[in-house]
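Handout, page 2. Input:
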Amino acid sequence: MQRALTFFALSAALSACLNTGDPADDAVESFDSVPGDDVDVTATPTHATLLAAPAWQTPAIIASSPFTNRETANPRVVFDANGGAIAVWNARSNVYASHYVPVANSWSAPIRIGGSITRDGIWIGMDGAGNATVVWTSGDRGGDEIWANRFSAGSGWGTEQRLSTAGIWSHRVDLAVSANGTAIAVWAVPLSDRDELHARRYTGGAWQAEQIIDVAPGERASRTMVSIDGQGNAFAAWMKGIPVPCCNLRASRFVAASGTWGAPQAVASDVQNGNGPRLVTNTAGNAVAVWIGNDLAVHASRFANGSWGVPQAISPAGLDHVVSPELTVAGNAAGNVVAVWYESQGQTPLMASRFTPGSGWVPAAQVWSSTRDGALGPLPGVIHVALDAQNRAHLVWSVWDIVEGTFFSDVWASGNAGNGAWRAPQIISTNPAPAGSPAVAAGPSGTAAAVWVQGTNDPNRKLVGALYK
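Output:
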């Protein structure tokens, strides 16, 4: 690895590169070629040989100072159906956005879309018409509020808007956006004796009134999440059990036709209170939840026919299991799901499993493993996966190491066409500064976009993006 940072800056580097946010950069250096890259240039040209195999392109700087600083972490990215993308991130107590324009093959100048962000992170979703919704937590950790802004295709960004009640501490927000244009934001409101789960829905061109999903005296919600189907029906899930015992996973279903949330249902007990469970929903109205148990195994349950199924372990038996609470899950409208995590056994393998309706979960496969030979790295940090409608998965993750007092960190990538092995892992960040907090989005025709943070010290920290095409 080529990233170098003196050891005295280790704590700052780890904060930038290992920050999970909850889940999350200048020329390509590929250690392993993508299968299919080799073309026989002596052969008679055909349509097939004239088309280059898809590959990660040279990273581009999306933003640098004054649009980035030490706060910059956990960027997010989404694609539209025409191959355009939007990246969002925080810096200097503001929320910024940049657009990838396919015809120009470049990112637009950053634009401020909101302000006063806290460490809860930013969430973005895109509907089928290319309209985007962004939500974030704004405040000073004692008076946090939930805010949002929307991008309308053809007219641009609107004005930021408060979603939570003014003056009421609100945090742990999550967002889901439907193909039909509906968006739902869910967050927690801590009260003296319990946490309330609040939600607001964007439909018909406006945000509707706040709704309370669950009120349970004496219980706290340590994680919140929401997912939505193509018709605007949704699931909200949360972990309950703060203080101990921790934790129970519960979920409520939102029915778009009636505009109401159903009674909470139990999904699982004995859930680890770390990086929270993940939730995905398909067009048939079914959902899949994936989480890490207190046994350090990865578990999953599926909602179908009105109830949640019996949880099952999807990580290999007999391993030491999850080395940290890193878990990433993605699904598509057909109900296919991919889950990725890493184990603490041996060389810390990065593992993945897929769920297919009618077939269930396949045995977990190894995507990457380190050359770990000591108590420290190389170890994976933040991981993020995306899945497109054709079941093509795109995976990015950070890898960090300390060698003779020097800190290194890179962003790696792999992918899977849905019917075979994962592509050989490759480094997609090559700037000498440490890289971390990666995120990825799946685009049309097998394309993808990845964004990450490069550098650790203001004004050297940058937001960088790369395209897979």
